[in-house]
Amino acid sequence: MDNGTKVVRPRGPGIPLLLSGLIFGGAVPLHGQTTEPPPPLPERPLEFPSFQESSLENGLEIIVLEHRNQPVASARLYFPAGSIRDPAGKEGLASMAASVLTQGTESRTAQEISEAIEGVGGSLSASAGRDFFTVSVSGLAEHLHLGMDLLSDVVRNPTFPEEEVELERVRTLSSLRAQQGQPTQIVVRHFFRTIYGEDHPYGPSPEPATVEAITRDDLADFHAAHLRPQGALLVVAGDVDLQEVEELARSHLGDWAAESPPEAEVPAPPERRDTRISLVHRPASVQATIAVGHLSPGPEHPDFFALEVMNRVLGGGTDSRLFRILREERGWTYGSYSQLARRVHDGFLLASAEVRTEVTDSTVVELLGQLRRLRDEPVPDEEVEAAISYLAGSFPLSIETASQIAGQIAENRLLGLSRERLLEYPARIREVTPEEVRRVAREHLDPDRLAVVVVGDATELLPLLEEVGPVDLFDVEGSPLARQDLEGSGTHGGDASLLAPMTRTYDVIFQGDDAGSLTYTLDRDGDVWVSRSEMDSPMMSQEQELRFSHPEMEAVSLIQESRQGGMEVRAELRIQDGRLVGEAELPPQAGGSQSFDQAISSEVIFPGMDEYVLATTELTEGAEISLLVFDLMSGEPTSIPFQVVGEETVTVEAGTFETFRVEGSQGPTPLVLNLRQEAPHLLVRQEYVGAPLQVELRSLR
């Protein structure tokens, strides 16, 4: 919700609130103080740190940046092998390969690798972006030889252990399911698919089905094909010199066979013929997330510097047009920005905002209008000068540390740009004129061929947006959605008539030891079910009363109190005439006191109801269930996905049960639930993947 409401939510069905620390900072002026800011200091000439270049006989390029103000060093090895190399139907392969790359080699286990680098206070990691695959090591300069040895080992000799592959698959699937409930993730994924198309490697994103299709052999094949010295770039920065780095590189990477990776096949993106709105239905959303934009020129285009200034004027900061108009003048959002992205192939221009549902159509009209205005009207000199001053003046802040400088140098080289393009950045920005900004806006902005993506409740938004332009309707996975499918969408399918009064007690186990108990009682009060829970644990305590209707299982009220250390959280919410009303009290660092009074769909459930909905929903292997749970943190409903992945026999203190294994996530942590196959499907055991916490059924009455 865009009113800034911050409340903490449970991390799993029936599990107590785990407080997330939120730190808010900022200077507060003294009351009544109105002093003019001092004039800016005269500009000092920028001296970009010098760097040296070399190469090995096998084609590996080397850049060395001497930066001796601290006794530390970092080495980053880049390959042209990001997700652009993912095969169709196996999107997510590059990212998965990066995550498992450091988890074992022919001579070291994952634990031995971790102990070796952490034993000297360093770090080793790998990651994959759209265009590049990166392996990084950092630490004290005196241990650079060890860092290079480990970096070389994981790059040249990874084994991709099967158990690590499967663990990473679970994490990835959990993350993807969590993203299905995050509007910012949904809008970006759909925007890329829209502007690049399904056949362009920038278009598709990883999906649960594509991650499930990836095998351990796929990771090994990806490594063999794409992690090669020819075309790779090693950037070493810190308390080092060229001779030392060359010796280390030659020792660890010099005998690496000189092979060139295959060229990526990149088809042309689809040509847009008009401006259309893609409306992604996210049931019960109380706000809309909007993305508007199209493709932009590649990084080597001569208009790049003028386009940078144009973007700054449009939405590149808090003094830009979009922020000033949509937030300060209209009051529709807490912030609206634009982004000009550089990629090896086509980049993109993206303007975005999050607004209340009722002003979504007005916001889309305003965004389109501001793009037309920028193209058709002269930009005042003072706006251009302010944009230039910011871009040129802030550039030195991006090259303060050795790591920052190395990153700038590497990005420039990887994008195929000349050395001068980076060194002359501030000067080239200052050469941009208002006339050039107007020219590049006229030549590169096309408001009549924009992609407009809106994520929100389509039952509310569709009538509004059809007044703006043609609308195509999709679900959150990106599949086309017929208008008649909107009716009744989002219904959770739970049936409270399957419930009976009961008492359940669970053991809370942390790191294998008893960490307390959790007790539930469920009773009928006329046409309302009342669920009361109490946690008794040295770590924290919590009491909750949850009410929902019979048999529709609609939320009625929630009262919750939790204490952890010296912090307390209280929340009291109720549904009244189709509106959510109530209050929450949080520690100051988590947002303080909050009030709620907002429209809410009957399809939305309170935290803690998800367990009862799953218990009374028909479960079969392979079934996918998405529940709309009111997220106390964001102040709006969030889609929580669950999937029945199989059947398991589970033994706990309460007995042995035939269960459904259900995977899901609430937040960043994957969950595994074992639900009794007999209806109602009560929770028998719950585990957090990668965390030493689980809950097991002790008794059931």
Short structural description:
It contains 18 helices and 26 strands.
Describe the structure.
This protein folds into three domains: about 50-255, Metalloenzyme, LuxS/M16 peptidase-like (Cytochrome Bc1 Complex, Chain A, domain 1, 2-Layer Sandwich), CATH 3.30.830; about 275-485, 2-Layer Sandwich (Cytochrome Bc1 Complex, Chain A, domain 1), CATH 3.30.830; about 495-700. The chain contains 18 helices and 26 strands. It has a 14-stranded antiparallel sheet with strand order 20-19-18-17-16-15-14-13-26-25-24-23-22-21. A six-stranded mixed sheet has the order 1-2-6-3-5-4, sandwiched between helices. It has a six-stranded mixed sheet with strand order 9-10-8-11-7-12, with helices on both faces. The model is unreliable at about 1-35 (pLDDT under 50).
Find the structural class using helix and strand composition. alpha+beta
Corresponding CATH superfamily of the largest domain: Metalloenzyme, LuxS/M16 peptidase-like
Side-by-side strand order of the widest sheet = 20-19-18-17-16-15-14-13-26-25-24-23-22-21
Radius of gyration: 28 Å
Q: What's the CATH C level of the largest domain?
A: Alpha Beta
End-to-end Cα distance, whole Å, is 40 Å
Write down the domain tally.
3
* Beta-strand content: 25-35%
Largest sheet: 14 strands, antiparallel
Q: What's the total count of β strands? A: 26
Number of helices: 18
| Broad shape | globular
Helix content: 25-40%
Which regions are unreliable across 5 or more consecutive residues at pLDDT < 50?
A: 1-35
CATH architecture of the largest domain: 2-Layer Sandwich
